[in-house]
Amino acid sequence: MTIKELTLDLEKYGDKTITLSGWVRSNRAQKEFGFIMLNDGTKLTNTQIVYDLDLSNFKDVQKISVGSSIKVIGKVYLTPERKQTYEIKASEITIIKDAGENFPIQAKRHTREFLREQAYLRPRTNLYNAIFRTRSVLAFAVHQFFQDKGFIYVQSPIITSNDGEGAGEMFTVTALKPGEKDFSKDFFGKEVFLTVTGQLHAEAYAQAFRNVYTFGPTFRSENSNTPTHAAEFWMIEPEMAFCDLNGNMEIAEEMVKYLIKVAFEKLPEEMELFNNFVDKSLIDRLENVLNKPFRKVKHHDAITILKEANQKFEYLPEYGKDLAKEHEKYLTDVHFKSPVFITDWPKDIKAFYMRLNDDNETVAAVDLLVSGSGELIGGSQREERLELLEKRMQELNMHSDGIDWYIKLRKYGGTTSSGFGMGFERMIMFVTGIENIRDVISFPRTPKNCDY
């Protein structure tokens, strides 16, 4: 039996003998009795095990250290008048493996910096147990959201010969020996990379299935050590044929609200922990997102708002330029007091595949900004006009090598299409209040760090 199974039908098991297995979170040993807090991974909260001199191995049980694995046979006693509504009176405790006195994660509060150095053990703490259960539940919810809408799940390739973002920050995959540089002799006969996006491949499938999505790992060799960047992360990327930018924003808003609702419905204990110990304004902020329509503003108008704001910025807002973190925070927290879609971005700071607007200066691009996390989603309506796509690539000195098939989509029945990308870790950070991406990835990969 698991602790989750027990708590789902607690009254049924009152005064009955059950068997539990798990890991010791604490062991308070007294002279004639003791209390073990046991966690088996199926539920955030621990179960109290009471033991006494009736155990044949009482003295050994007294010495069980934190982190040890044990099996407990005992009777369930219901205690509805107490904070802990039940406890187990042990009749038998078997030590599966004692963790010893040097177990790194003792029954005290550790810093997140320390726990990042113990990434293989940190899931045994309450915080990380809650974080990674949240990640699991929301990953399933992503699929549920799109599957319920009839989207096709496309498993886009991890190894690719194209740079989908045109930024050049890619990891090369090679079987060549050190010093060899002739990629024609490499495994694939050309230079190939770890993917930075599944978007281009999703666009191809959208032109057959109409609505598709990818959800998988992506990689960037960006030498950045900020709290929001990692070299390996997961991306959610829907792509919709016959869909313009407005339809794109509708799906994005609906998905964000759906994932928040799932977190509230499926993870009440975890959300309470995050609100109490990570960010005391978390639940209020997420409820505000649920209860308000997302605002929309053009990039030019957003810059005007920032320029007219009665607030000093470290980086002055400028037309034609990107937004800084402090600008995003002002727009979401002060001016709009809600999530906001920034649309119609200057073409010179956006990717080649975004549809050129009639002004020839901006593209049909959109970023979703949210309080606390800043940019949560980036998307666009795709450029379906072949001649304009080729012209834009020429302006950027881009070659068609590796993406000639992508260009040909415009020739062979290509339609209006739109899509967006959401960094899954950014969404987890938003829902949990966690500020560092390294704390929401099981084994984070960052510059100079690829442990485990």
Write a structural description.
There is one protein chain. This protein is α+β, with helices and mostly antiparallel strands and 452 residues long. The chain has two domains: 3-108, Beta Barrel (OB fold (Dihydrolipoamide Acetyltransferase, E2P)), CATH 2.40.50.140; 122-439, 2-Layer Sandwich (BirA Bifunctional Protein, domain 2), CATH 3.30.930. The chain has 13 helices and 16 strands. An eight-stranded mixed sheet has the order 6-10-11-16-15-14-13-12. Strands 1-2-3-5-4 form a five-stranded mixed barrel. A hairpin with a 3-residue loop joins strand 1 and strand 2 (33-39). It is elongated and about 85 Å long. The two termini are 31 Å apart.
Mean pLDDT, nearest integer?
95
Annotation field: number of helices: 13
Taken in chain order, the helices and strands follow as HEEEHEEHHEEEEHEEHHHEHHEEEHHEH
In percent, how helical is the residue content?
25-40%
Placed side by side, the strands forming the largest sheet appear as: 6-10-11-16-15-14-13-12
Q: How many separate domains make up the residues?
A: 2
Topology diagram in text:
Blueprint: H1 3-8, E1 17-29, E2 33-39, E3 47-52, H2 58-62, E4 69-78, E5 86-97, H3 112-116, H4 126-148, E6 152-153, E7 159-160, E8 172-173, E9 192-194, H5 199-209, E10 211-219, E11 232-241, H6 245-266, H7 268-277, H8 282-291, E12 295-298, H9 299-308, H10 325-335, E13 340-346, E14 362-370, E15 374-381, H11 386-395, H12 404-408, E16 417-423, H13 424-432
Parallel strand pairs: 3-5, 6-10, 12-13
Antiparallel strand pairs: 1-2, 1-4, 2-3, 4-5, 7-9, 8-9, 10-11, 11-16, 13-14, 14-15, 15-16
Helix pairs in contact: 4-6, 4-7, 4-13
